[in-house]
Specification:
The chain has 5 helices and 7 strands. It has a 5-stranded parallel β-sheet with strand order 3-2-4-5-6. Strands 1-7 form a two-stranded parallel sheet. Helix 2 links the parallel strand 2 and strand 3. Helix 1 crosses helix 2. The longest helix is centred in the first third of the chain and has 14 residues.
């Protein structure tokens, strides 16, 4: 498996695209990648929810298998929308909003991730459990 590094300009383009589609919505970011995305989206017209219970849309960076998306919606509110920058074509659960679909099994590495940690995960074939938890 290869590591596909996404650069900041591309990531920002995707974040702004998602923010424009969710203008005025109260968003809440899933810890780690989702928090980064949601925080940047707040500078582009979205409102950060003070807590999950008032959010309209849950934000994450990627949906790999769909496990996280399904769990967060089921454990909070089925009416909550889910949005991501990237969705894998093989995901069993699709988000309500997504910017890009990847048709590869490569590890998608965002700029906020540590390359050394990613390389270890990929070598151990543990990338999906980190990306979807």
């Amino acid at each position: 498996m290869e590591i596909r590094r996404i650069d900041w300009p591309t990531t920002m383009e995707w974040i702004v695209d998602l923010a424009q589609r969710l203008q005025g919505k109260k968003i809440w970011g899933i810890p780690r990648g989702g928090q980064v995305v949601a925080t940047i989206m707040a500078y582009h017209g979205c409102e950060l929810a003070s807590r999950l219970g008032v959010a309209e849309v849950i934000i994450d960076d990627i949906v790999c298998t769909g496990t996280t998306c399904k769990a967060w919606k089921m454990n909070n509110s089925p009416s909550l929308k889910f949005a991501t920058l990237v969705t894998r074509s093989t995901s069993k659960v699709k988000p309500d909003y997504s910017v890009v679909t990847f048709y590869t099994s490569d590890y998608i590495m965002f700029p906020w991730e540590d390359i050394e940690k990613v390389e270890k995960l990929v070598a151990q074939d543990r990338y999906t459990e980190v990306k979807d938890t």
